[in-house]
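Hey, resending since the last one bounced:
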Amino acid sequence: MHISKVLAYQQFVSSALASAVSISTTLLRGTQGEYANAALFSVGASSITCGVRFADDGTVPTGTVGQFLAYGQAPWLYQGDLTRVKFIAGVGNPDLNVTLLVVTD
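The structure tokens again:
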């Protein structure tokens, strides 16, 4: 896999992650018509015990349900339908960083 282009960056602060959030659909399309088909997710926080949960099947994650991304974990490269991914704080007060990408095989 090769990263062809970085399209956008979006950050969700801990207060926004108190309820489920989604990636902004306006950021998924680049200025030259390309469409994000992958993303890097990473968790930042003021405490090492923080984390985010996400679901990519259209369901809403909860504080205990969904894939867990911990603070300090290497960025998670995700390929899939970015319009279906939802995030919520899993533990503590995390911030979530999302870098939207165009990748090729």
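The chain has one domain: 2-104.

Sorry for the duplicate.
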